[in-house]
Amino acid sequence: MTDTETAHVTVAIIGGGQAGLSVSWYLGRAGIDHVVLEAHTPVHAWADTRWDNFTLVTPNWHCRLPGYHYDGDDPDGFMTRDEVVEWLAGWLDTFDPPLRTHTRVTRLRPLPAGGFALTLATETGEETLTCDHAVVATGGYPIPVLPAFAGALDPAVTQLHSEQYRNADQLPDGAVLVVGTGQSGAQIAEDLHLAGRQVHLAVGSAPRVARTYRGRDCMTWLADMGLYDKAVPEYPGGKAAIEKTNHYVTGRDGGRDIDLRRFAVEGMQLYGTLTDGKDTRLAFAPSLRDALNAADAVYDSICADIDAFIEREGLHAPSPTRYAPVWEPDAEVTELDLTAAGVTSIVWAIGYRPDYRWIEASAFDGAGRPMQNRGVTGVAGLTFVGLPWMHTWGSGRFLGIDRDARHISETIIDDLRPNAPEPSAPRASARHGLAVAR
């Protein structure tokens, strides 16, 4: 949008990541007046909050956005961070979103007559913009989580969150403690391990999954089984299943399992959940053995589900297998002195939390999460997109963004123009300054 003085717009999309821009793609085709408000630059998180050796954990063929999909020569491979940034830049070349960068929405409040007033913080000051519809596309969990006791640890120990980690050389010499074994924690631990650093790893409750099984990537099997398309109420395990951390696996070097037991054989020091710390002393729960067993049980259960699908569909595939543990902890270590162990840095990989305090609307539960159905809230005109598990397991992933964005866009279009004609095709534009990190 070139007119930065515009006082009113029909639809304001808050967030210029792939989810918000996907909604813009559909609204643009329908000729709906809208603006995309981005606090930084479009899809900046891919270049700015991933480590140097980051790769996707989902196969490249999962990468689908409105009017655009991965069409390279390695559909079953895993794009690196820089390749993802370049791929997204190519998508932005295909249409012309009305985008305002370096524009942060600091307040959203409903207006008595309907619609919303947005307070914008820009490079030149503060502005107010009103809109009939607001689409929140800021991501599900933007605030990095640190434990309450992090500030009580020895200041000589370097601490950073996983989103700040780039590579092993960024950290001071010495051993590194990685806390958390979700996708980021497990992969960062592997990155440091492969770089030759002594790694101490506090193991959480995240499950694991085989990279490949019976001749195909597990995520390709799961897609064929329809698990990424099941709506939340229909998903096996119900609400408990969708609250769990995603399975750890890696796409690095063409993709492979992450086996924490194998890391232990190779010298990584494993512990249970980190529960407390002060100065240089840390305390861990005696949960390591149970955590490893539980992760392996999920690994094997997914393999069993694939076995059942293969048999049910009468498919031909290599014979089934099960994971055989290569290491067992002799005893649970529940204390660690950082100085004695030579640990000079900690990487916190314990997740993120929502922060919608800037939205003054009754659309959130007691935990501060949006109360929504496929992104639509009970507040007229207020919708969300890009949330994990917003509709299916595919929501928040490249595989499900197009479907979710289309639904939100159709909801808005139907409200504004119930008898709207078929949208026209978008026009091409420049890359909006999206640079490939090197």
From TrEMBL:
Quick check: keyword Nucleus in the entry?
A: no
Q: Which Gene3D superfamilies match?
A: FAD/NAD(P)-binding domain
* Stretches for region Disordered: 416-438
Superkingdom of the organism of origin:
Bacteria
Question: What is an example of a GO molecular function annotated in this UniProt entry?
Answer: flavin adenine dinucleotide binding
UniProt keywords, alphabetically: Oxidoreductase
What are the transmembrane regions? Answer: none
Pfam families, per the entry? Pyr_redox_3
Its name, as the record gives it, is FAD-dependent oxidoreductase
Look up and give the organism this protein is from: Mycolicibacterium madagascariense
